[in-house]
Amino acid sequence: MSQPTVLRRAGSALIVMLLTLLAGAASPAPAAAAQTLTWTADDDITRYKSVPTTAVAGATTIVFENSAATGNTTGMPHTLTFDTSAEGYNHDVTLNILASPFDTNNGRHQANVTLTPGKYRFFCTIPGHSTMVGELTVTTGTPDPDTTAPTVTGAVSGNRDSQGAYLGSATVTVTATDAGSGVRTVEYQIDDTSWQAYSAPVAVTAIGDHSVQFRATDNAGNTSTVGSVSFRVAQAQQQDTTPPVVAGQTAGTRDSAGNYVGTATTTLTATDTGGSGVARIEYQLDGGAWTTYSTPVAVTTVGAHMLHYRATDNAGNTSAEQMAHFTIVAPPVEDTTPPQVTAAVTGERDGSGNYLGSATVTLTATDTGGSGLKSSEYRLDDGAWTVYTTAVAVSAIGAHTVRYRASDNAGNTAAEKSVTFTVAERGADACPDSDTRDTVVIDGYDTRIPNTDTGNGCTVNDLIAERAGYPTHAAFVRHVENVTTTLVAAGKLTHRQAGTIVRAAAASDKGETR
């Protein structure tokens, strides 16, 4: 090598050394953080696996780990993001860490920030992870030293035989959490051999009984007690050549002909006795494309349908196709039309149109909406609403109003209507053979209510007419209710007296078949 070449290289090296020294002098190393806060995540998209809730103000190292070591077995990415806009929170820390078990850091990331007193809101920005949210409260005090060791657990997975042994391989997954300074390391050893750093689930394939021990250490130096899982690995079974068994069950509301009304829902299930397990179920509707089954298949199109289905196991065996056929009919049109109800008043009338002695009100209701008539009701003057079963006779002298309505079985109620009429006296003495006893007596029971003249020569007992013919006991009681209601409205009886008379009528045997 020539001397000029050596000199040039030596000069270049000297320049690089000087630039390095100058850069070091201009940018001193940052001071160590006063505290470390650790967040962890796993396969769940509804919450972080572990989060700190309190901290003190000052330099802080943020650790976010979403790795196999924290229980992420699917490669699901998560973020740790500090909110910089929501009202009521500190906005002086900008942090948005994306972590995945398959990234260059194997899912473990850290950042140095400075926290100030107050509250910080953190969340995951990945769509569908909106429930992963929490708060960190920062105070000005000095944090208590972390003296609590992490919590560490182990789980074993794999295909098992009927005795519980794992066929060919067992996979051990270790999970560690720490609510204080955060998990620093996780270790494991197989069958008391030697401790190794844990970074991903451990597969044990040697045939026989095994014990895997594990432990975790946090950033404060606390180490958990040793945990362990024990299991047996057995020889894998022979190749599975038996296809799965697939079945379907169709459900829904059916009419008298067996057709499904509106919707038919088919649930598919499959079992595999060959040992490899069911890989997937597929279905084909009315000759369409085969589709992977995940949820019950709901069919709503009116007409006849054919649903083919099959299942495939993990060894590649596919069952014979099965089929379900069914017919869907349109559901009946909802009844939103209220019934039609009318009232007719009959009886002997005078020249002024008044009814002499009594008036009979008859209600007629029809329903054209399809659900059918449920009931009709009427209300005499200021009385209560009463279910209509037979024509209503009104004999109290004076003006009256009968209100009425009807409802169908779909819950539709017709608008309230009313009919008004007047009952007049029949001559100077409408009751020539008047019952003039001092008190109102019903079926031998003395109510002690004065048997006053109600007008036109008729007493209360005359209007009650207990000796008249009534088809049922209930009809007699309703008649007494109508009479007393009218007399209360006319000021002939008080509400209390009317109640006493109605109770006496209800307790009597009048109108009952003997």
From TrEMBL:
Fetch the SUPFAM superfamilies from UniProt.
Cupredoxins, E set domains
Instruction: Return any one Pfam family short name.
Output: Copper-bind
Signal sequence: where?
Answer: 1-25
Name of the protein in question:
Ig-like protein group 3
Q: Give the matching Gene3D superfamilies.
A: Cupredoxins - blue copper proteins, Immunoglobulins
Query: What GO molecular function annotations does the UniProt record carry, in alphabetical order?
Result: copper ion binding; electron transfer activity
NCBIfam families with a match to the protein in the record? barrel_OmpL47
Quick one: a GO biological-process term for this protein? carbohydrate metabolic process
List, for all copies, the residue spans of the domain called Blue (type 1) copper: 57-138
Keyword Metal-binding listed? The answer is yes
| Keyword terms | Copper, Electron transport, Metal-binding, Signal, Transport
Look up keyword Transmembrane and say if it applies.
no
